[in-house]
Amino acid sequence: MMAYLIALDDGHGKNTSGKRTPYIDHLGHSIRENEFNKQVVKYLDTELKRNGFDTLLVAPTDVDTSLSKRTKRANNAGADAYVSIHYNAYDGSFTGSNPSGIELYVYPGNLNRKAGKLAYHIGSYLRKGTKQNYRGVKEANFQVLRETNMAAVLSENGFMDHPDEAMLMMDAEFQQEVAIEHAKGICDFFNVLYVREQSEAWFIGRRVESIFDGELRFYNQPSWSDTDVVGYLKKGYGFPEITARVPVGGGDQYKAVNSSGAVFYVTTSEKYVQVI
Ligand SMILES: [Zn+2]
């Protein structure tokens, strides 16, 4: 099967006029919108490639690439989806009213079509994965949404003129979070199982829970033996904290603690559990 091709758009050129935060006193300068967009596109590119997608960076340089050039590149390449990363602005000032939060856009009339579906998938992950207000999926007659032939979504991942969200723009952890949530939504839309980055111990301290429709066995020691089973997890139930991953016979188990600190062992198989 051929890989899906995702066109990634970093919104604006580095020096596109206007597209920046108000002057930030304690930094001594403003932050350009593209500084955020570009980093998220970079992380998203990595996320998508790891998950088996091909990507097309429609504006790979810092030069101000016109919107029509961006959409033409995606159309010519026959991309399967177009994702444009942005940061919002309200009135260009830190004073007065400062709305905050994330919103996604599709071309008018597309909420119930492919683009809308893609936007809802991405939005649901952004809503869960970030601490920000979730402002929903909206319609707008934006050029990159109008001139693209494939499912096209534009995300505004915060407000440049909200004092806290302006500072988030340069937070690498936040940039990565935004990229990961986009990648998860894109995976869902294309029915691809999202695979997270396998750094050595990414699961430590996280919750493990059953995604199995039946009853999932857990054990009081690293074992697959019937006699060591001490209970069953229903779907959605699990343990709040993984403390280790241990090899047991043919597969691994998570060593995890429940809310009272008792230690249990449960499979690491992604067919049965998810780590949140
Ligand atoms: Zn923008």
UniProtKB/TrEMBL annotation:
Alphabetical UniProt keywords: Hydrolase
InterPro entries per UniProt: MurNAc-LAA_cat (IPR002508), N-acetylmuramoyl_amidase_3 (IPR050695)
Highest taxon in the source lineage: Bacteria
Domain MurNAc-LAA: 71-187
Protein name from the UniProt record: N-acetylmuramoyl-L-alanine amidase
Native source organism of the sequence: Halobacillus seohaensis
